[in-house]
Amino acid sequence: MTNPAAAVASSRAHPDAATKAEATSPKPRRRRSIRRAWIGWLFIAPFGVVFLVFLVAPLLYAFYLSLFSKGLATGTVFSGLGNYVKAFSDPEFLGGVWFVIRFAVVLIPIQMAVSLAAALVLDSLTTRLAKFSRLAIFVPYAIPAVIGTLMWGFLYSPVFGPLTSIFGAFNQSAPDILSSGNIFGGLLNVVVWQWAGYYMIIIYAALRGIDPSVYEAARIDGANPRQIALRVKVPMISSALVLILVFALIGTLQFFTEPQVLKPIANGAITASFTPNIYAYNLAFQFSQFNYASTISFALGIVVFAAVYIFLFTTRKRRGGFSS
Amino acid sequence: MASTMKNLLAATSAGILLVALAACTPDVSSGTSTDSAAGGDAGSCSNTIVHPDAPQVSVWAWYPNINTVVDMFNKSHDNVQVCWSNAGQGGDEYAKFSTAIAAGTGAPDVIMLEAEVLPGFEIQNALVDLSQHGADKVKGNFSDGAWKDVSSGSSVYAIPVDGGPMAMIYRADIFKKYGIAIPTTWDEYAAAAQKLKDAGGPFMGDFGSNVPAWFTALMTQNGQTAWNYDSSNPQSIGIKLNDAGSQKVASYWQDLVSKKLVDTQDQFTTDYVAGLANGSYATYVSAAWAPGYLTGAGGAATGGAEWQVAPLPQWDASKPVSVNWGGSTFAVTTQAKDKDLSSTVAMELYASQEELQDGIDTQTIFPLNQQVLTSQSFADAPIAFFNGQKANGEVYIPAENAYPGYTYSPFTTYYYSELTKSMVSIIDGSKTGPQALDDLQSTMTEYAKSQGFTVK
User: Fold this and answer.
1) Would residue B286 count as lying in a domain?
2) Which of A89, A313, B20, B302 is such that its CA lies 20 to 30 A from the CA of B390?
3) Residue A62: which of B19, B411, B421 has the nearest Cβ?
């Protein structure tokens, strides 16, 4: 594309040439380039309009809201960054952030291990069982999170769930998963089950992309299957691993659906500020504090940004072709 | 770095997704109200309009039989027609209403609200003072207590429909099997609970952390006057949650919980209703709407369960106190186009003999209208759920008549959320009952101050 800026820059460098050029050629050329630019905008318009109307505009509006504060008994006043100071010293918000960080630290390694193990096993199997297993592991991802969580709610239920009878068979009393002490593990299980299959598919696809002659070379060099898996396959798919790590990190920091669905049956274990997103939701729609809810949302955005940045920064050397 | 940037952008933007959702919700919900208030579009109503020429008033309500009631109303009124839609039950509807208030558009003309959330919407100037629109005409239809629940000072913010005088629902078969006499005081209730446990019987009752309104009613029964609030002076509030009476109630239930005499299951869950049906609980301390709820949830369907009802146990049998849990009203929103007409609908919908009778027959509501409460047929009606016991005349009508009314705070949802935390700590024993209430008192005081109130 002819770059108008470049034309301007070059015209500055050669003032004489510029005046000469302006007199003769540039007008039709510039018009053509403008038309071309318009065609480009036309192509991205379907995306651009949706992007502006449903993402950028609400973002700006939310940021605008977050700069004001409104108490129930007071009017709306401009408070600048006051809400942000309040948010980052609000124990409810910080408690929620602490929870999702702890959750991420425990969840992500488990999720990675499960999906990586499944993908490696499926990659080295070529039977019909492998196809079936691949589908079976992936299916939970195809179930909407709300439905999946509702079903787990019934499985965890002391009355309807199987736990009571399973533990009863050994004369033990079943643990109440939906209690303050055990809800962490209960949610962990739901999320691993829900997402491991999806990550498995990503890893599996990356494994399929490796040239099989690499394995042959490794075998000729005397590597056994386990060594091939851990020393050859895993390093070669490290970019896919980093990708799913980032997905998992972002998803976990925004944890919302599963605890929100389990809340009505969790015997008070899931509070109104359980995770930052649940807190923002309750502030806006239960406690009528839209301004502060916007602040909490942005504050969470800052936390997510920081977490992902730190993560990408610390793994930048080990990354393969993930970012170029 | 292009893909990294994209991820970072996704990270930040998705964090704000909720607010993005908040920004577009009003458009979704406004379809009903703006169209119908304009008068023409019957397509957005969930009911049929009988007199298409009459002006329409949009209504949000979730009574299970509301479609029947609206049809009756529309047939009998040729000057106004109700355009009804269901915007969700309780919290779901309030979330939509809150959004509509913040957006300045999208609320219905008339909205069904529970009495406990009225001050919270009043303070946002979302509700019309009905005393300016002829509410005094219908004041005589309600008891003083019911009227106090919807008023603040001389202002009236809603018309009561349905109430929840509390009583003790119990399993006569379980009481008989274990030789338990009907407890009239809380001391007798605790003693009966111990007796049941010693005999290997079921739990006496349940202390669920998700029913803060229930716990508030029980503390109110022992003298708690939690809020001192009047919407004519909305910047000022008095808070007293940890008086001696309340602390006694908290300690009492903590004692029952720690001795495993009552269960700690969340209520309104499938587990809890199943427990009520299969005899895990000897009593269900609840409100007058409970039989209707249980019938709908399948709790009464199991054979052999002999439900009966007795008055709520008292702290001092010589000075009985009546309390209320739940109940609903019709309020007019400030976004209503025609406030007089909307007020008429709020006063007359679910108020005629025919409409109320349908509510009674379907066990949907416990009506607060005095015409019903004073009628012999209502008092003498045998209730199928209670195996023919004349529950209204024996228990619920006296309880309702003795109910003195309650002053709610303008931040009920926040208070309930905090009280739930206190109840969890009472259940798990991490705090003693009085400690939990002391902490609740300071949390709520701090919250009121942060919201700009002067705490008296």
Assistant:
1) yes
2) B302
3) B19
Helix, strand, coil fractions of chain B, as percent rounded to 5: 50, 15, 35
Q: How far apart are the CA of A5 and the nearest CA of chain B, in angstroms?
A: 22
Mutate to test the interface with A, among B113, B203, B260, B271 (most CBs of A within 10 A): B271
Do B361 and B451 lie in one domain? The reply is no
Q: Are residues B334 and B298 in the same domain?
A: no
- Measured CA to CA, the distance from residue B283 to residue B275 in angstroms comes to 11
> What radius of gyration do chain A's Cα atoms show?
27
Q: Do B194 and B136 reside in the same domain of the chain?
A: no
Domain membership of residue B65 (yes or no) is: yes
ipTM of the shown complex: 0.81
| pLDDT of B43 over the 80 cut | no
Structure tokens at A4: 């108008």
Alpha helices in B199-322 (DSSP H): 212-221, 244-258, 270-277, 290-297
To the nearest whole Å, the CA of A62 is away from the closest chain B CA by: 6
Total number of domains constituting chain B: 2
Residue A238, Cβ density class (10 Å: 0-12 exposed, 13-18 middle, ≥19 buried): middle
Whether the CB-CB separation of A97 and A297 falls below 8 Å is answered with: no
Q: Domain boundary at B379, B411, B444, which? A: B379
Cβ-Cβ contacts under 8 Å, A55 against chain B: 13, 20
Chain A nearest C-alpha distance from B421 (Å): 7
Structure tokens at B175: 């009481």
For the question of whether the overall pTM of this predicted structure is more than 0.80, the answer is yes
Please indicate, yes or no, whether residues B94 and B208 belong to a single structural domain of this protein: no
Q: Which of A24, A60, A23 is nearest to A298 (CA)?
A: A60
Q: Check whether residue B51 and residue B154 sit in a common domain.
A: yes
The per-type count for chain A, helices as H runs and strands as E runs, is 17, 2
Name the residue among B120, B234, B420 with its Cβ closest to that of A268.
B420
Q: What residues of A are in contact with residue B411 (Cβ under 8 Å)? A: 72, 287
Mutant choice from A60, A244, A267 vs B, greatest count of B C-beta within 10 A: A267
Q: Is residue B2 part of a domain?
A: no
What average pLDDT values come out for chain A (324 residues) when binned by 10 residues?
A: 40 43 52 76 91 94 93 86 93 95 94 92 83 89 93 88 85 82 92 92 92 91 90 90 90 93 89 94 91 94 92 72 42
Whether residue A276 contacts residue A300, with contact meaning beta carbons closer than 8 Å, is answered with yes
* Interface contact A280-B19, CB threshold 8 A: yes
**Domain limits at B46?**
21-163+328-379
Which site among A182, A281, A288 would you substitute to test the B interface, given the most B Cβ atoms closer than 10 Å to its Cβ? A288
Q: What is the CATH number of domain A83-314?
A: 1.10.3720.10
Q: Does a structural domain hold residue B220?
A: yes
Decide if B18 and A298 are in contact by the 8 Å CB cutoff. no
| Token pair 């708690």 in the structure block, residue | B224
Tens of pLDDT along B133-192? 999 999 999 988 999 999 988 899 999 999 999 999 999 999 999 999 999 999 999 999
CB distance A114 to A297 below 8 Å: no
Q: Check which CATH number belongs to the domain holding B90 and give it.
A: 3.40.190.10
Chain A nearest-CA distance from B198, in A, is 20
- How many CB atoms are closer than 10 A to CB A209? 10
